[in-house]
Amino acid sequence: MTTTRKSPVNDIDESQLKVSKPRKAAAGLEAVAIAFKRGVEQAGPARTVRSMFRINQNDGFDCPGCAWPEPQGRRSPAEFCENGAKAFAEENTTRRADREFWAQNSIADLSTKTEYWLGQQGRITEPMIIREGETHYTPIAWQDAFDLIGERINATTADRCVFYTSGRTANETAFLYQLFARSIGTNNLPDCSNMCHESSGSALNPTIGIGKGTVHLDDLHKAKLIFVVGQNPGTNHPRMLSALAECRKNGGKVVSVNPLPEAGLMGFKDPQTPAGMLGKAAKISDEYLQIKVGGDLALFQAFGHLLLKMEEAAPGTILDQEFIESRTEGFEAYREARAGIDWEETERATGLSRDEIAKVARMLADSDATIICWALGVTQQPHSVDTLKEFVNILLMQGNFGKPGAGACPVRGHSNVQGDRTMGIWEKPAPWLLDAIDKEFGITSPREHGHDSTECIEAFENDEVDVFVSMGGNFALANSETERLEAGMQKAGLTVHISTKPNRSHVVHGKTSLILPTLGRTDVDDKHPGGEQFLSVEDSMSMVHSTQGRLKPVSEHLLAEPVIVCRMAEATLGSDHVINWREMAEDYDVIRDRISRTLPGFERFNERVRQRNGFQLPSPPRDSRSFATPSKRAQFTVSPLEYLEAPEGYLIMQTMRSHDQYNTTFYGLDDRYRGIKDGRRVVLVHPDDLAELGFRDRDLVDVVSVFNGEERRANKFRLVAYPTAKGCCAAYFPEANGLVHRDNVARVSNTPGFKNITVRFEPHTKTAKALS
Ligand SMILES: Nc1nc2c(c(=O)[nH]1)N[C@H]1C(S)=C(S)[C@@H](COP(=O)(O)OP(=O)(O)OC[C@H]3O[C@@H](n4cnc5c(=O)[nH]c(N)nc54)[C@H](O)[C@@H]3O)O[C@H]1N2
Ligand SMILES: Nc1nc2c(c(=O)[nH]1)N[C@H]1C(S)=C(S)[C@@H](COP(=O)(O)OP(=O)(O)OC[C@H]3O[C@@H](n4cnc5c(=O)[nH]c(N)nc54)[C@H](O)[C@@H]3O)O[C@H]1N2
Ligand SMILES: [Mo]
Questions:
Q1: N or C: which end of the chain has fewer CB within 10 A?
Q2: pTM for this one?
Q3: E strand or H helix at 621, and its extent?
Q4: List of domains in the chain
Q5: CA 470 to chain centre
Q6: CB 537, CB 698: distance < 8 Å
Q7: Pocket of ligand 2 (CB under 6 A)
């Protein structure tokens, strides 16, 4: 085992790429070994072992990996997965991007580095600044940094300030952060949710009256049928595989819908069971529908049609008429719209046969407790909101809300992305929320909506941003139109990045730029008059619980996120502001008390967050089959059929995560389950499509995307023959982000079309204009 804790000196060498056959099962002991290896490389064996056993324990820290919930009862001593372990190894690293690092590397040098190299340099150890005309970041004292922020915000108008949030931010921090933005007078609060599950909220809010899922972990164990649509849990939510395996053990069935035969959807070697340790894989999917990218709306409309037909043939046996009549609205219009179907078009849209679809519709008919789980495969396309409303139709027809083992389950990404929204990080806040904040704090929040993350690209480009503050994340690289966004960000007067590790957004900075290094999840937060503090998060199933790091921070100069927000606020608004920021920075119980008086569901927050498993937020559809829509009924909706079809010579590209990355952070360069090693600039293409387009496996190409007649380019990708659905292809995020036109978004939610890129390939030429 290599135990280099030094940062890599060399960057990615794509000529090392190796390709082997995709795997048929996820996890196993290899996963545990790799997790341990990555941990030791970053932090050494002692620190790795000490922290591994604290992940997701009642008195430990919430895994920064994903938003999947923890079991309520018995917890395994190692309640984590390979990728959770890698996530904390990244944070837990003893590598340091200290002042020598910044002195040795100019912005010009850093701008040639990949995200992998930047992230592998280690934790940032003190506040850094770069001013207009300078070539290097240099250290700055904390108070000087805060004063500069206050000065710049006060020198401009509130609508020219933007406050971005990435979903790792804890509840208390998020609450303070939105309060700060609103105290200044702006709702410019874009967040990573805008690029992620925004479509889910946009579909669920109007139909079931809440923008969140309606199932608990226990429901997955009890379900008769679970759909996993547009999701790769083996990599992105590995602990979900245990829940799927348990459902099957209890007699339930699992259907996966995905253009790629993802390893984790096929089989699971649970490293926490004896059989799994011996390498025996449990089957996960009873049926696998290899859908074409963008075909899910057509598929679920076909399910609706078939359920109606079956009900017609045997009235009273398939649909839950009582539920439909007493709890919903719009069923007649829905029934009429789905009475007929064009099978030829449905087969073309989905790439599936009528028989395959009918077989799964029968499984739906036979199940009296169905859950539909989904993630980004269905949230980042033009018709995403319609697709998700169609999922709701299917669930409503059989009364799959408010009964055990049933419901809607959007599987969130970042570990507190759902909590951030609950805390008010929202550019389009509901009026009741602003009223509640104003009443509790005596401020007047602005009512005008702010920019979402897509709108920010234009705001930057049009020179409408003077101050950009980023609470975590990597805005420049996570968003679409990389080149345009980067050019725009450099026009801003001041960019402020509250970060743990170097990333691209620090390199394509505003005229003046600050990097404020912060404590992470695993770090102890003990520099307070009242001693050690803890924070809280909300998981994908609305459980709120505490999280507390215990490790010694990599540097004594790091500040906790809530402290950074309060000190920015004090420097901007003055120490005599109507809100006592200092008292909240000193004692997080004060923040929680104020949250409990502002937000519904958080009554007695301080007391309940200290309970062993935390507490569950209310879910009216689940708790009492009630729906907070204007008519108090759940809504059936009718959407026209829509799907993605590439013109001749083109394919529809989706962008996704490899097994060795966390969004824009790369743990390594392998995508083990898909058989890709030591490289990331690949496009996975069906062998027939390769042949039809006149290319061969491993050809080096430039990728050209078209949208509204405009072209975007990303050069030097390797084509790899891969068993994906035909007509579509796949590449990694963020290498392909430059291909996504800013106007390519999902309707209503405005989420970038990261899974809807129309592309063609051109043989790579050295002279091709380098755009990414
Ligand atoms: N280890 C690790 N864990 C993570 C993350 C990470 O980067 N690394 N990221 C976190 C975040 S922020 C998020 S949001 C989640 C993301 O979790 P996922 O949604 O699983 O992430 P993606 O890699 O984007 O995978 C999308 C899946 O959808 C499929 N897909 C693409 N297009 C379509 C389509 O049109 N229809 C259907 N049915 N399927 C389609 C793809 O083949 C792929 O399997 O994971 C979270 N967890
Ligand atoms: N093409 C394409 N693009 C996508 C997607 C896609 O599927 N395809 N997915 C989208 C999705 S789902 C999401 S959520 C976004 C993600 O967008 P972001 O959330 O903006 O990006 P991340 O890569 O998660 O952010 C990583 C950075 O966060 C900082 N960081 C890590 N931990 C902490 C911490 O504890 N505190 C603070 N303050 N900073 C920390 C580190 O400096 C690190 O460099 O990307 C979106 N972009
Ligand atoms: Mo996400």
A1: N
A2: 0.96
A3: helix 620-624
A4: 96-196+416-588 (3.40.50.740), 199-411 (3.40.228.10), 651-763 (2.40.40.20)
A5: 16
A6: no
A7: 119, 166-168, 192, 195-196, 376, 413-414, 471-475, 478, 498-501, 503, 518, 520-521, 561, 655, 663-665, 733-734, 736-737, 754
